[in-house]
Amino acid sequence: MFQTYDDVADPTLGAARAEKLRTELKARGLDGFIIPRADEHQGEYVPPHAERLRWLTGFSGSAGLAIVLQDKAAIFIDGRYTLQVRYQSDIDVFEPQSIMSISPAQWVEENLKAGAKLAYDPWLHTVDAIERLQTAADKANAELIAVETNLIDVIWEDQPGKPKAAIQPHDLAFAGTPAAEKLQTITNELQMSDADAAVVTMPDSIAWLFNIRGGDVAHSPLPLSFAIVYEEGHAELFVHDEKIPTETRAHLGNVVTLLAPEDLGPTLDKLGTWGREVRIDPSTCADWIGTRLTKSGATIKRGVDLCELPKARKNDTEVAGTKAAHIRDGQALSRFLAWLSRETPSGKVTEISASKQLEQFRQETGELKEVSFDTISGAGPNGAIVHYRVTTDTDRTLGQGELYLVDSGAQYLDGTTDVTRTVAIGTPTPEMKDRFTRVLKGHIGLAAARFPTGTSGAQLDALARMGLWQAGLDFDHGTGHGVGSYLSVHEGPQRISKAGHVPLDPGMIVSNEPGYYKADAFGIRIENLLVVTAPAPIEGGERDMMGFDTVTLAPIDLALVEVGLLTDDEKAWLNSYHIDVREKVSPALNAEENVWLEAATRAI
Predict the structure, then answer these.
(1) Could you give the C-alpha distances from 162 to 126, 167, 336, in angstroms and in order?
(2) CATH, residue 145
(3) How far apart are CA 368 and CA 308, in angstroms?
């Protein structure tokens, strides 16, 4: 199994650990400390030693931040985690704060006393984030102080060591473009930006640029490392020597110079000494790097990570790979859904046993490298927790008359998958069917959209919410995120959300996942992955329009569809989708599974 179900949250430890931190602060003459859920690369997935927020507070979400002062503490979360934080953390110690209502900087301005010294680890905050916090501290007449040693590391006695997983080449058969060609593309962009060098801090960008994959964090094949690209056309990769086997060294030999991680600081100093103009992405680059460059005399040029857009625009090989991966994954998921319909009447299927069975079906493809994230397996009220993580303590039986939400994904060499299905266990209520169908209407509205070049996700987001809005309902998360190619399951810069302002380009992969959540009752989400298609004419139209190609293949539960709420076009879309599922999935299913599939994909 690629995931465990141990309970990582223990709210009872929060008070003692917060006091231990306060004692350390007092000994150092400090009044507070900021603890983000981050490592030096600011990625979503972090290695065990960097799970400092979880160790301190018990909260295990993928995004969050705590601020501990001598007399109070707060934990900041987004809309996905408003329920989760309350059962994982001691909210009498760490007061939950929604970042939609108040940002950490605003909280600092309002709660930091004049003359106070608020400390932070400059490796764990971006340049942008520290600028916002510095402004807030100035308004409070307080000090923001960078510390060389992370204070959680000082008090975390059994902290795990840093990972050193081997880095492997990512074959051209899957990458589609040689690393040397990618480097030339980035170098050309760098020259056009009038910068001498660019610091690349995101491991997924480094993995894409050099056609390598690693294993330093769970679920995403990331090689934790840093790189510098020079406008002359060469690059340096800062990585532990023991992480580079002979095959990888040969693969990288003509593309990049290998240096040790401890060489990064002196190399940044040289850039300053030479008076170089250095490009960084202030939204992802650690403040430590920005500060080191500035102090050394380098001129900072701000701009987005130059790898971000070309990485997001999948080439033909990557698009073909993700389609192949989704056929394979859809076959495993359909086998699972058939198994679920067969086994749940026994009353013995639980959230954990279902999750394990799904992973087993993916293992049986013979191609599974990892799951792409911890499976969200939520029955009944647990499904209403958007990023619910089942543990042995919370494991719940899939009960009759309930909804079961399963959000899962896989990592294959040719593609990354992410899919959510909501299933009725037994007979659903009219309310469940109404809400499900409204979510489905939004899902179809987005999947069937046609739009001109330059359209952003923010302009399309309302399509996925319209069916819910018409009934006075909504959901508090984005509609879709970008997805990598055997890389991060959450990838930017594209997304479908109210804040998704990057134009969609052909080859980009985005998720389509509207939902509805009734606290303490049930959750609904329908998620497929979409590939943005090239502009094409519409009969009788005047402009070519882009659109989406749905690549996820798994039946949508017809028992939850209130057919009378669907338009003829929506019914036609669903029927066509189910024909596609049946044709591509059925060859891998046995006779009994295919009987189930025929019924599950019948025309309505």
Answers:
(1) 21, 15, 36
(2) 3.40.350.10
(3) 26
Question: What's the average model confidence in pLDDT over 160-186?
Answer: 97
Looking at the fold, whether 289 and 322 belong to one and the same domain comes out as no
Tell me, yes or no, whether 266 and 335 share the same domain.
Answer: no
Domain boundary among 290, 311, 332: 311
Q: What is the DSSP string of 489-505?
A: SSEEEEEESTT--SBP-
Look at residue 604 and tell me if it is in a domain: no
Closest by CA position to 97, among listed 136, 62, 65, 56: 65
| Same domain assignment for residues 332 and 318 | yes
- pLDDT confidence bin for 136, thresholds 50/70/90: very high
Q: Tell me: do 491 and 553 sit in the same domain.
A: yes
- Domain containing residue 119: 11-155
pLDDT at residue 45 in the model:
86
What's the average model confidence in pLDDT over 167-184?
A: 98
C-alpha angle 30/33/36, rounded to 5°? 165
Per DSSP, the residues of 463-485 read: GGTHHHHTTT---SS-SEEE--S
Sign of the torsion angle spanned by Cα atoms 68, 43, 554, 534: positive
pLDDT band of residue 7 (cuts 50, 70, 90) is: confident
Neighbour tally for 420: CB within 10 Å: 22
Q: Measured between alpha carbons, how far is 211 from 205 in angstroms, rounded to an integer?
A: 10
Q: What angle do CA 481, 484, 488 make, to 5 degrees?
A: 85
Given a contact cutoff of 8 angstroms between Cβ atoms, the answer to whether 435 and 518 are in contact is yes
Distance between CA 349 and CA 588 in Å, rounded? 24
pLDDT value of position 419: 98
Report the number of distinct structural domains present in the chain: 3
Same domain assignment for residues 324 and 272: no
Q: pLDDT tens, 349-396? A: 999 999 999 999 999 999 999 999 999 999 999 999 988 989 998 999
- Distance CA(224)–CA(203), nearest Å, equals 5
Same domain, 224 and 262: yes
Q: What is the 3-state secondary structure (H, E, C) of 45-101?
A: CCCHHHCHHHHHHCCCCCCCEEEEECCCEEEEECHHHCCHHHHHCCCCCCEEEECCC
| 223 domain-assigned | yes
Does residue 428 sit in helix, strand or coil? Answer: coil
- Per-residue confidence (pLDDT) for residue 363, from 0 to 100: 98
Find the radius of gyration of the CA atoms of the chain: 25
Q: CA nearest 158: which of 29, 2, 13?
A: 13
* pLDDT for the residue 109: 97
Mean pLDDT of the chain: 96
Query: For residues 568 and 448, what is the distance between their CA atoms, to the nearest angstrom?
Result: 13
Please check whether residue 429 lies inside any domain of the structure. yes
- DSSP code for 158: T
38 and 176 within one domain = no
Check whether residue 50 and residue 147 sit in a common domain: yes
Q: Does 495 have pLDDT greater than 80? A: yes
Q: Tell me the CATH number at 512.
A: 3.90.230.10
The answer on pLDDT for 91 being more than 90 is yes
